[in-house]
Amino acid sequence: MEVKIKVKSVCYGFGSILLVMTGCGQSIPEFDSQSAWKYLTAQCSFGPRNPGSEGYAFCREYLTSQLQTTADTVFHQPFQLANPLDGNQYQLANIIGRFAPEHTTRLLLGAHWDTRPWADRDPDPQRRSEPILGANDGASGVAVLLEIARILKENPPPIGIDIVFFDGEDMGLEGQPRTYAKGSQYFATHLPLPEPQAAIVVDMIGDRDLSIPVERNSMNQNPVLVRRLWDLAGDLNLPAFENRILPNVYDDHIPLYEIAGIKAIDIIDFEYPNRHANFWHTHQDIPANCSPASLNQVGTLLVHYIYGQYQ
Ligand SMILES: [Zn+2]
């Protein structure tokens, strides 16, 4: 993701209370933060997952097999991408899992699964050419969506859900936004599934010090969905969600809207860890700087939205 202006509590989930009842009697499954955390650390155990790396190949298999145990259908959307620095060509793939395909009302949930090939923001110039681990920038969004996939398998949702793990998000050059988000650009140009009514992208939502203001493009692209989600976060006492608007981020939600017309928003904490320090695109993007409690805030919100808002 590319930020135009460089800028970036907790609800613990325990297994003892499994269901929450809404006013209309629909039960809402509990998001299991420890399960989500395992999905984050599993991805990081493969090492950096930048295109062409060993970790990338292992993670591709892992994500595919995880979705195969939960989704109704799973498929890859392959595409080619050249590294903008050296011109090397890579065969990449968006990884897609479809849930409840019989529903015509559909929501897309997306996260990028590739990690950045360079730590170009690292304070140590000697290590800027090495790939980052991407615990937050890559693994965190995917982890929350893998846990939601597990929940969707056990609790048939009232709407159709398409989970898309976008590839090629983070091989871009700073100052050139459209060199990022290549997987979502390809997806939006060659839409491989029925067009969803809306999309929610999650990115960098594992930060231990989580704060999620409204991203400005999201407010322009789908203000109704933004207001509904941030209101719901208030009702659920999820303190990371803040009622202020901060600068534009070029992330996977932009191609979805600009190319395919999908009303997409981005849930993102782009101050990692906070406005006084930076772990983004550095070798500090590791599990120790993330937390299960942060994954829980975003996962809880999405689960309540899916199961509680479409009655
Ligand atoms: Zn990134």
Could you tell me the radius of gyration in angstroms?
18 Å
* Full CATH superfamily name: Zn peptidases
Total helix count? Answer: 8
Please give the share of residues in helix. 25-40%
- Kindly report how far apart the N and C termini lie: 34 Å
- How many domains in all? 1
Given as residue ranges, the uncertain stretches (5+ residues, pLDDT < 50) are: 5-19, 21-25
Number of strands: 14
Relative strand content? 15-25%
Class derived from helix and strand content: alpha/beta
CATH topology-level fold name = Aminopeptidase
Mean pLDDT: 92
CATH class: Alpha Beta
Lateral arrangement of strands in the main beta sheet: 4-5-7-6-8-12
Largest sheet: 6 strands, mixed
Large-scale geometry: globular
Helix-strand pattern: EEEHHEEEHEHEEHHEEHEEEH
What CATH architecture would you give? 3-Layer(aba) Sandwich
Q: Give the names of the bound compounds.
A: zinc ion
